Amino acid sequence: xxxxxxxxxxxxxxxxxxxxxxxxxxxxxxxxxxxxxxxxxxxxxxxxxxxxxxxxxxxxxxxxxxxxxxxxxxxxxxxxxxxxxxxxxxxxxxxxxxxxxxxxxxxxxxxxxxxxxxxxxxxxxxxxxxxxxxxxxxxxxxxxxxxxxxxxxxxxxxxxxxxxxxxxxxxxxxxxxxxxxxxxxxxxxxxxxxxxxxxxxxxxxxxxxxxxxxxxxxxxxxxxxxxxxxxxxxxxxxxxxxxxxxxxxxxxxxxxxxxxx
Length: 261
Ligand SMILES: [Cu+2]
What we know:
With 261 residues, the protein is α+β, with helices and mostly antiparallel strands. It has helices at 2-15, 17-22, 33-66, 82-110, 151-154, 246-260; strands at residues 118-125, 128-133, 142-145, 172-175, 180-186, 191-195, 200-204, 210-214, 220-226, 239-244. It has two domains: 28-110, Helix Hairpins (Orthogonal Bundle); 118-260, Immunoglobulin-like (Sandwich), CATH 2.60.40.420. Strands 3-2-1-5-8 form a five-stranded mixed beta sheet, with no helix packed on it. A five-stranded mixed beta sheet has the order 4-10-9-6-7. Helix 3 (33-66) packs antiparallel against helix 4. Copper (II) ion is lined by residues 124, 191, 226, 228, 230, 234, 237.
């Protein structure tokens, strides 16, 4: 009884609206159109899988409990039946096509790196990120982005703040509603640049340049992490993207450029 009570408590917690709102159980749609599409695709595939699971296990458990020899049922004799084999080939084939069509259209959009207004070269180092703005007049913007969480929080001598290990000294700044292309590479070992809320995750591989892009719909601070185990301080090289208005971006660019001179 106690187990049952605990189990129902867990279920209740999982499905409480509060948790759904925080997206701790499900993935987040994020703040980009592509992110929303990825989320919809994820939900579609999830429900297809739930339906398949319910039907297959439903029939299986029904048969095991009610369609038994002890209840007077005779074994079926459709062994090597061509029509049954055609049916169980065609149905999964149609389901797979139904999943592949929306998945392909989302993938095509994710890989459409054309017509970006800003290009940023992102280089992974053990254990920090370097950002270089490659576009025209912002050519000389170039900086490293280091973890800024104080040692005292890491060694538990002071209380940890809410962005513990997710804060940096110099964030990447990009304008809102602008297609930004990220060229991602690494200088030592393989890292991976991952900012879930802006729909970006790409491996940073020495000697290769991977491309990805984002067009963020809402101003704000978006946090991410290195997501490829890259050594002792893998958990200490977060990513902080500040999405700001066009005007703020222009001001930031100006300030950065005069800093470089
Ligand atoms: Cu790394």
